[in-house]
Design the sequence.
């Protein structure tokens, strides 16, 4: 990776008040990876209204997954995000809080399942893809853009991509109609220097285009918050977070910490703390998330956390050294 020098005058070096920073809450969408998208309507309603009261800019309510791929009773409503379910959960929509959905490349019948914008409660469609899926992802973004949505391209597992792949992917994404390009540390394996270098690479790629850069960080190395604010300091504009860090495995950047840090006076943390107290913490007995040492081991080895999740669910804190040795030998 080419190391960029940081311009002392770059926007956001000292994260003061910056109206361009947008916070996107992923609580329901990322949390759906733990409970197969089976959150109760009341939970989604509470998260939505807590985010609205906190001044959050976007709430991601779930996935737009093709029912032919994910069938039956295995998944709850936030795997598909029908208009009826979204409207039922939200109730009256707050004009200051936009709704996003995530469409995984190759897993969404976007021509059918994503309606024209004027028929939907959704404001933004975020397309997630891996490097080899860029052409298909761009087609999805074009479709959503033409239907009237704000869009983002979320390039996942960036820590596993080669420099040439990143360069080519950015060139293609910049030519697309997407509004935001996301740097996604899917394995939570990146320290501040590669995060800094990647953020600057992404920002350089979109110079003069009007496009913005976002950051989505996972907490395997307990660096999700640190890497998020490092990216914002360099000029990244969109920051993802979840209430109480809820998310698969070690979880994500905690929303309450991010809001407490940002200087924009519109952000207020009280409603998020109330949501943690009344809605999120009571789920601890039913769902498991949060940092544990096995996630450190997968993070330091740049591996998907699925092996750590399986280990934690099967043995808890036992046999950590055996798990470490197996990961090192792989």
Sequence:
């Amino acid at each position: 990776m080419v190391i960029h020098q940081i311009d002392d005058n770059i926007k956001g070096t000292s994260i003061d008040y910056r109206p361009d920073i947008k916070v996107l809450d992923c609580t329901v969408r990322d949390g759906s990876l733990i409970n197969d998208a089976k959150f109760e309507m009341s939970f989604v309603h509470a998260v939505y209204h807590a985010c609205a009261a906190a001044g959050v800019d976007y709430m991601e309510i779930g996935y737009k997954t093709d029912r032919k791929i994910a069938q039956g009773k295995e998944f709850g409503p936030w795997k598909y995000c029908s208009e009826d379910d979204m409207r039922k959960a939200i109730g009256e929509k707050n004009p200051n809080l936009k709704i996003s959905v995530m469409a995984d490349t190759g897993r969404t019948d976007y021509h059918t399942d994503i309606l024209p914008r004027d028929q939907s409660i959704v404001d933004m469609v975020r397309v997630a893809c891996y490097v080899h899926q860029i052409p298909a992802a761009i087609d999805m973004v074009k479709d959503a853009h033409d239907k009237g949505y704000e869009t983002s391209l979320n390039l996942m597992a960036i820590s596993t991509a080669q420099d040439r792949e990143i360069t080519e992917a950015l060139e293609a994404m910049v030519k697309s109609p997407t509004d935001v390009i996301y740097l996604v540390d899917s394995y939570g394996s990146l320290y501040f220097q590669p995060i800094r270098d990647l953020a600057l690479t992404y920002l350089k790629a979109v110079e003069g285009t009007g496009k913005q850069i976002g950051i989505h960080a996972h907490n395997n190395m307990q660096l999700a918050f640190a890497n998020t604010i490092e990216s914002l300091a360099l000029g990244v504009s969109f920051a993802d977070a979840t209430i109480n860090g809820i998310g698969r495995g070690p979880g994500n950047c905690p929303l309450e910490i991010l809001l407490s840090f940002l200087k924009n006076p519109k952000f207020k943390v009280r409603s998020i703390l109330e949501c943690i107290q009344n809605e999120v913490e009571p789920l601890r007995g039913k769902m498991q998330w949060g940092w544990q040492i096995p996630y450190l081991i997968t993070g330091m080895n740049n591996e998907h956390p699925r092996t750590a999740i399986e280990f934690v669910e099967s043995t808890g804190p036992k046999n950590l050294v055996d798990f470490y040795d197996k990961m090192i030998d792989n």
Q: What stands out?
A: DSSP finds 13 helices and eight strands in the chain. Strands lie at 22-25, 58-63, 98-104, 124-129, 150-155, 180-185, 212-217, 238-241. The CA atoms of residues 131 and 169 lie 7 Å apart. The domain at 22-285 is CATH 3.20.20.70 (TIM Barrel).
